[in-house]
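Following up on my earlier thread - several people asked me to post the actual chain instead of describing it. Fair enough. Here it is, all 334 residues.
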Amino acid sequence: MARIAPRTSVAPERLKTLLPSLKPTIYHDPSASKTPNNIRTLAWNPLGTYIATGCLDKTLRVWNADKPNVRQTTELKGHTASIEKVAFNPAKELELCSVSSDGVVRFWDVKTKQVLNEVKGLGETFTLAWAPKGEFVVVGNKEDKLFVISPNQSTVISEHQQPVQTNDITFCWSGQRIYTTTGDGKTRILSFPGFEPALKYNYKEGPDAEFRLNGHTSSCITIELHPFNRYLATGGTDSLIALWETGEWNCLRIATKMTGPVRSLSFSWDGLYIVGGSDEGSGLEIFNSETGEHLCTYKTTTASPVVAWAPNRYALAYADSGSLRVIGASTGGK
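Reply from S.P.:
Thanks for posting it. Predicted structure:
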């Protein structure tokens, strides 16, 4: 897989012609289920050197980004249900958190394969977000409860029942707020660790006073924060991607070229581009986050609901035909 020098931006006109022509590196796991949607979740580590995949068939594997052979991977064994979410500690190179659908949260040392901590009994869990400094995770379940968990403590620190269906969560970069997407198409902005509405209308009272982002005509199911905090991106079952500026919270642009529900979103390392993944269609849609322009479609064999840009270069990881694949763009002038 070709790499480019980190911190070298590529101009949109070059990216839109270059990216569709690249062939992916295929990370093939012969022991994994071949069903198209077997990979439920994937995540890069902070240095962009490893990729974790969590699967419907309970396989949890960490791949060396430079070595697609399965013999160069680390399999982390122990989950007894579908793995719904994985994420690396943003402050440590090889500490991974995994969440399975049977309410088990595990923290792993990838290097030694050891379980550093385990929390059980959280219901049907499916969402996960690390605090920016790596001291907490927030995990959500299908009963719309959010749990604050420490990597070093086997019991839940706090539990917060949400008043609406809560589909996805992410932190702001300060760690003082958390953003949650809801079943009524809105995004809530909550304080952390209090989980109270962070912004309110001064002329309303009660629940109506809470300020929310209203950008979707149906359920809002995924959310991603720009690496430099310029935008908050939300995706919904209405096939729309909304881009919000984080000062006055105006919706600046709507991207409309997605096919099917927007299951995942990811900004490139420089924040110039955003990609959407869906469980319908046969391609990855790449947009210019500054203009909302649809730049290109990267063709895939099957639908690709999970996608993620590397944190430090133009390498794009995604699931296709039941396997992890990565495309990497070479450098170009602005």
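The helical segments are 12-18. That should answer part of your original question.
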